Amino acid sequence: MAFFWGSLIFNQIMKLSFKKYDLLSKFAIFSVLTLVGYYLSKIVTLPMSFNSALGSMLFFFAGYLIRRYKKLFDQLPLYAYLIFLASWTYVATLGLFLIENMAAPNIFLNLISSVADCLCLIKLSMIIDSWLVKKDKYKFRQEILLIGSGSLAILCFHLIDLDNISVWTILLKKLNDTVPYWFAIMIGNIYRIIFAYLVVKIIPFVPLLKSCFFPRKSIKK
Q1: Which of 7, 77, 148, 168 has fewest C-beta within 10 Å?
Q2: Phi-psi bin for 119: left (phi > 0), alpha (psi -120 to 50), beta?
Q3: Backbone torsions φ then ψ of 204, nearest 5 degrees
Q4: Which spans in the chain are helix H?
Q5: Which of 30, 53, 28 is nearest to 40 (CA)?
Q6: What's the CA gap between 37 and 110, in Å, rounded?
Q7: pLDDT at 218 over 50
Q8: What is the largest CA-CA distance in the chain?
Q9: Distance from first CA to last CA of the chain, Å, rounded?
Q10: Residue 50 to residues 56, 154, 186: CA-CA distances in angstroms?
Q11: What pLDDT, in 10s, does the model give residues 92-126?
Q12: CA atoms lying within 13 Å on the CB side of residue 138
């Protein structure tokens, strides 16, 4: 719901046109909305994840800037990505990735690190994609692209698994008594990868779910 409302609000604001300082004006609007969402969450929890939708406005705007100035980001030196990686690691270590409920102690640090990790993952994806093309691994590349296109479905069903099915929790409890903790985590991560792959493979064949998670594929040209 946060993604839905966030996309809706973001798209409506981006339709606005300012004669002067267009991007700066929109940045100011998104900054205000982000602060409203963050501080409002400390007072009241709005329905349908509206707090998170407001609080993620700067994140949406950052994504827009990355896409608009793609060539500039493509030319960033290696040390810039090392800084992004360090920021990502630092915040992840502190456990501040709480944008879904606006519970992060420092929302700006949270957002900056979120953008940093996105840039790292984008760069890593580009490197992997170039390598796959170079090695003629087109079939494997298509499978990776399929998983990427189904990221929203993967996220939703991953949350369903965590909150309701709880296979991950059951696995950890069963394995913790017999194998080292690191091995249990590794098995759990393998399960998550298999689960994600099955989701993007099965969902396109389920009519209603296909329309929800793969709307573009559902529209016949």
Answers
A1: 77
A2: alpha
A3: -60, -15
A4: 2-14, 22-40, 50-55, 57-68, 70-74, 78-94, 107-134, 138-149, 151-160, 167-176, 181-202, 207-213, 215-218
A5: 53
A6: 14
A7: no
A8: 66
A9: 28
A10: 10, 21, 35
A11: 776 555 555 566 667 777 777 878 888 888 888 88
A12: 1
What percent of the chain has pLDDT above 70?
Answer: 88
* Residue 24's pLDDT band (cuts 50, 70, 90): very high
Q: Which of 119, 106, 102, 96 is nearest to 54 (CA)?
A: 102
Q: Can you read off the two tokens belonging to residue 83? A: 């800084």
Q: Quick check: 128 pLDDT over 60?
A: yes
Residue 42 carries which side chain, given as an amino acid letter? K
Residues 87 and 113: their CA atoms lie apart, in Å, by 6
Interacting residues of 47 by C-beta distance below 8 A, sequence separation 6+:
none
Q: Both tokens of residue 197?
A: 């792959």
Asked if 55 contacts 37 with a C-beta cutoff of 8 angstroms, the reply is yes
- Other Cβ atoms closer than 10 A to 208: 8
Structure tokens at 42: 């400390």
Non-local CB neighbours of 100 within 8 Å, separated by 6+ positions: 2, 49, 52
Q: How many helices (H) and strands (E) does the chain have?
A: 13, 0
Is the pLDDT score of 207 beyond 60? Answer: yes
CA 160 to mean position of chain CA atoms: 16
Please tell me the predicted confidence (pLDDT) of residue 124. 86
What does the alpha-carbon distance between residue 189 and residue 193 come to, in Å, rounded to a whole number? Answer: 6
Mean pLDDT of the chain: 79
d(C-alpha 209, C-alpha 34), whole Å: 31
